[in-house]
Design goal:
Blueprint lengths: L1 H6 L1 H7 L8 E12 L9 E17 L4 E6 L4 E6 L10 H15 L7 E7 L9 H16 L6 H16 L6 H8 L4 E6 L4 E6 L5 E7 L7 H23 L12 H6 L6 H26 L2 H17 L6 H12 L3 E6 L7 E7 L3 H16 L4 E5 L6 E3 L2
Parallel strand pairs: 3-5
Antiparallel strand pairs: 1-2, 1-12, 2-5, 2-6, 3-4, 6-7, 8-10, 8-11, 9-10
Helix pairs in contact: 3-4, 3-5, 4-5, 4-6, 5-6, 7-9, 9-10, 11-12
Bound molecules: alpha-D-galactopyranose (GLA).
């Protein structure tokens, strides 16, 4: 709050009195994905949840045409006019904010300048959707500051469009839906065919979700990620042509029978990409079942299978991610692990026994340090509600 008062000093002068009623606080979570990777843009299934690690945003209207932001977690400021918003190739993080502001303008919402601070305990580039947390956090902040009444579904659309059309990462809907619709004690079963979701009680009994951040930054991710999307489109067009069925709308409608029928006609690469999408959707449904039955061991096995598919068929893993998955699986108390998010670096998600947590962290830290000369970050995460206004 002190920081806010310091930063907002300018606005205070302009506005007269800055009272607590004019300040809006938003808590916007990251997300973990239990399973269902690279299925969102193929109209498949996923099973994510919002996590109890957040972007904290605190802001106030400033009666000007400028949006001013100070990101405390990186120690940088940024200012831009809402009358002239363009992509900034030097300050990448600002584009997520600009993209969302543009969406509000495109959709004719009446907004003016505002000043805000961002703080965070959510690491950047680790596969826990810090970018979606920022996008949705800014969208909610604008909604609250300017008394707009925006449907949660529209917030998802604005943020998804900001990332695809302004930032230029052709992501699916997984992250934005998870951050908007997260619910405490629940995983979210997502069907991307129609963007519908329903909540599944998430209770791992004596186990918990442990995310291990390899600290390998996902520099190549946007290029490689977009390439995977193109490959999926290419595969889809081929299946439509080969089967003569124009009704097929996405890769998730292909089954293993049809895939095998054309195995020798399509390229090995497209065959593998499609196989990942088909089998990953099956694993999501199995995980949902296992969760409902309370079969945690089975969920661990499915995580391991998912990793193999992401590594061998979708080819989005890295040496460090494979190492973490392999080494975790050697430790007693670990039920399974896999890379999480886009891949190409970032984090892995694992299911581990609560009682063995410290031992697991010690063993993995020591081995990783010996091999890669650094210690990974460990994030134990619980479920959380989606982004919302909070009163401190
Ligand atoms: C990133 C994207 C998501 C999704 C995952 C992979 O997190 O933002 O849309 O495609 O990768 O499952």
């Amino acid at each position: 709050m002190l920081l806010l008062k310091y930063f907002l000093n300018g606005s205070k002068k302009k506005e007269g009195i800055l009272n607590n009623n004019s300040i809006v606080n938003i808590l916007s979570p990251g997300r973990a994905n239990i399973i269902g990777e690279h299925t969102d843009y193929n109209s498949g299934f996923s099973l994510p949840f919002a996590i109890d690690k957040y972007k904290f945003l605190t802001g106030v209207k400033n009666n000007s045409e400028f949006i001013e932001v100070y990101d405390h977690s990186i120690g940088e400021c940024y200012r831009f006019s809402i009358k002239n918003i363009s992509f900034d190739s030097n300050i990448k993080w600002a584009n997520y904010i600009k993209g969302v502001v543009c969406e509000y303008i495109i959709h004719n919402h009446k907004i003016d300048g505002f000043s805000f601070i961002i703080d965070s305990n959510l690491s950047i580039g680790s596969g826990v959707s810090s970018s979606a947390a920022i996008e949705v956090g800014v969208a909610k902040l604008i909604e609250q500051l300017f008394n707009l009444n925006i449907k949660p579904r529209d917030i998802v659309e604005y943020c998804h469009s900001a990332e695809n059309n302004f930032v230029g990462v052709k992501c699916g809907y997984l992250d934005q839906i998870s951050v908007v619709f997260g619910k405490k004690n629940c995983a979210i079963f997502l069907d991307f065919k129609d963007l519908s979701h329903n909540y599944i009680p998430f209770n791992l009994k004596d186990y918990l979700v442990l995310i291990v951040d390899s600290k390998e930054k996902r520099n190549l991710s946007s290029t490689e990620y977009n390439k995977r999307r193109e490959e999926c489109n290419e595969a889809l067009e081929l299946f439509i042509k080969l089967s003569g069925n124009k009704e097929i709308k996405n890769l998730s409608e292909i089954d293993l029978g049809l895939l095998h029928k054309f195995k020798n006609i399509i390229s090995k690469e497209l065959y593998m990409r499609t196989r990942h999408v088909i089998t990953e959707n099956i694993r999501v449904l199995k995980t949902k079942e296992a969760l409902s039955r309370g079969n945690i061991q089975e969920i661990g096995n499915l995580l391991n299978e998912s990793h193999k598919s992401l590594r061998n068929d979708y080819e989005v893993s890295t040496e460090k991610l494979d190492y973490l998955v392999d080494e975790l699986n050697k430790v007693n108390g670990v039920l399974g692990a896999r890379l999480m998010g886009a891949g190409f670096g970032g984090s892995i998600i694992s299911i581990v026994k609560h009682a063995d947590l410290d031992k697991i962290k010690d063993i993995i830290s020591e081995k990783y340090l010996r091999k890669y000369n650094e210690i990974p970050d460990f994030i134990c995460c619980r479920t959380s509600d989606g982004a919302k206004k909070v009163i401190y």
